[in-house]
Amino acid sequence: LPSQGGFARCYEMTDLSSNKTYAVKVIPHSRVAKPHQREKITNEIELHRDLHHKHIVKFSHYFEDAESIYIFLEHCSRKSLAHIWKARHTLLEPEVRYYLKQIISGLKYLHLKGILHRDLKLGNFFINENMELKVGDFGLAACQDISDQKKKTICGTPNYLAPEVLLRQGHGPESDVWSLGCVMYTLLCGNPPFETSDLKETYRCIKQVEYTLPVFLSLPAKHLIAGILRRNPQDRLTLEEILDHEFFKGYTPEKLPPSSCVMAPELSPPNPAKSLFAKVTKTLFGKKKSKAKKGSLEDKDDISKLVTGLMKTSICRQMSYKTVEGNEVTPVSCRSASSSPVETVVEETSHKSVSPSLRGTMASSCEAFEDCITASAIIESAVRLLRTCLSSMPTAEKNPASLARHEHFVWVSKWVDYSNKYGFGYQLSNRSIGVLFNNGTHMTLSPNRRTVHYNPTNNKHLVFSVAAIPEQLQGQMSVLRYFASYMEQHLMKGGDLPSIDDLGQPALLLLQWVKTEQALLMLFSSGTLQVNFYNDHTKVIISKPDQSCLVTYINRERNSYTYKLCSIQELGCSPELHYRLEYILKLLQERAEA
């Protein structure tokens, strides 16, 4: 007994003669005894049997006997989006794009045929064995040429009803678009946008279009939802405009694993560097000279720079945990030019878990000096400071007064993750380039590009001239140079903090990096920690240049502000910053317990 509706029960049935499985709606005659009830079922059958589309539940056949009416439909073994939502509560943005594209495909087909669905909701989007979505349940569907009286009937699911439907102004294609916006919001945020404990209040919120957008949503997602949930139907985005929106320029998987029905999938967005590294791998391990095609001189030159070093020393040792491929370059917001690359980020959205999906840690020595700082020491100190601050700070709507920037303040302005092959690369605001390799070693190229700092462990430091790199380090040097070239050419700086020449300072070491579904955490040998939030490109940097602890916040517009943590504890901070500090504390606490 898969499901039960207002008039019918739905069963999974197998035809023993063909071994084919169907979803069968069984409607007792007693439930449709009145003429208007019978007309409703007849309308559903006549309308559905003429629909043939990849993303519409297939109508097979029907018959009736003395007891009931039996409608045989395509069987969708993965149930519905409602079941996935109940198990997951929120979905990642790439997943939402995956499902919305299929819903829109089916909905465009319906609208072109002059059909209004009038009951779009999670429970009416069915998922088959191959994780393909099918729009179903046409019990409330109607043709656009029906009488005005029927079009103005209030029908559908309360949380998804459009304002014009509640006001009895008629149900048009735009009303289905409204419901689509409610579906998108529900999948991303965990609950419908207008849901309240009181139905009258829900209807009031819908009519006034009163809803809130969580801070963790990406700007493109917020803009798209706002473009759909507009009071005037004529002001809403069309289905074509929705597909052309900035939100859909983000990574969309070709297929989702069945496990995503109950848990967040590990998605692998395309990496801008992937094609070059694929060529390198093919050159080293898979290319047969006799069959090799001549590539461009540019490709050959790029590859040779990497291959020459890589053949001398292998640094491709895989880490013990599961990794994903690198990240996708995506625009910051709808206002950004599509041709402007930004920080490499995985555009994955809100998920309440902060468990790391992958991470890297610098090798430690058992003979560490007493003053040799470790990642665990940084985490312990930060947890203590943040816990004290957040437990006693008052509620506030704005941040304290911003301080002047510290003279030697250094932060990560660019980064690229290729840990499934080589390691994690980053560029600091002083223009130095660092790579924490998968084997736990660390290499830094100085801002003037003349000196290389090499750390086999966190307390062993070797310095070489670029012209005198030892033979055994040539391979790592080749990768370091490639990362440097890639970040200089393809990535934008992530904030307005100035670049500084800091040649007199010792090389900064990345001790550990951790990626969750929502953010990237980086811990440095100076005691500084930086957290980059993927969806809106905000950043929080916690540092201790002197005795006081400073919090630097880089907002969505890439403007930076620095505050004393003690001032935040005393005066409070904006909800935007408070949310991020709470998240960082939770992430650090999980790392401390790991």
Automatic annotation (TrEMBL):
Question: Domain named Protein kinase: which ranges?
Answer: 1-248
Query: Which SMART domains does UniProt cross-reference here?
Result: S_TKc (SM00220)
* GO molecular function list: ATP binding; protein serine/threonine kinase activity
Catalyses: L-seryl-[protein] + ATP = O-phospho-L-seryl-[protein] + ADP + H(+); L-threonyl-[protein] + ATP = O-phospho-L-threonyl-[protein] + ADP + H(+)
- PROSITE patterns xrefs: POLO_BOX, PROTEIN_KINASE_DOM, PROTEIN_KINASE_ST
Location(s) in or outside the cell: Cytoplasm, Cytoskeleton, Microtubule organizing center, Centrosome; Golgi apparatus; Nucleus, Nucleolus
Q: Which Pfam families match?
A: Pkinase, POLO_box
Q: Which class of enzymes does this protein belong to? A: transferase
Sorted alphabetically, the Gene Ontology BP terms of this entry are: apoptotic process; DNA damage response; Golgi disassembly; mitotic G1/S transition checkpoint signaling; mitotic spindle organization; regulation of cell communication; regulation of signaling
Per the UniProt entry, the Enzyme Commission number(s) are 2.7.11.21
For this UniProt record, the keywords arranged alphabetically read as follows: Apoptosis, ATP-binding, Cell cycle, Cytoplasm, Cytoskeleton, DNA damage, Golgi apparatus, Kinase, Nucleotide-binding, Nucleus, Repeat, Serine/threonine-protein kinase, Transferase
This chain belongs to the protein called: Serine/threonine-protein kinase PLK3
Q: What is its main location?
A: cytoplasm
Residue ranges annotated for the POLO box domain, each copy included:
411-489, 509-593
